[in-house]
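[job 4471] stage=fold_predict status=RUNNING
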Amino acid sequence: MWNRIKAGASKMWNAVTHWFRRCNGPDNLGMAILITSLSLTLLTRILGLGIPAVLSMGLYAWAIFRMLSHNKAKRMEENRRFTQGWMKLKTELRQAVVRMKNIRKYKYYKCPNCKARARLGCACRGALAKRPSLAPSASIASSRRHDNRFLQRRL
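[job 4471] inference complete, writing structure tokens
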């Protein structure tokens, strides 16, 4: 009798491992869904609201569905689109931080047609402006005119 139980358990184990071998598993989108769901659960605990709890359970179910799905092509496409969007957002945020750090040195313009950014620097801004011997005697208004003329030539 023990051999039958052992053989049945072995067959069951083989079936389960075969089924899980075909599953998609965790990816970037799945982890983002789980982190969002976990933060909503914590928000629910702190505020005591019911709507975030329902949304959190739905997100948990979606993440588990994605991990156990056998349609790998569709899940990989979803993950690719998410990763591209996430990298674009990350790049935009990183560039915004750099622009904010350099706001005293450069003036940034955005082309209305192609959306390209132009960074214009002038000797009256930044490190050269701190040394009076190298700083131009022009006022800030004339330096802005200089920047605008340069921008019009560039675009």
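[job 4471] summary: Residues 14 and 76 are 26 Å apart (CA to CA).
[job 4471] exit 0
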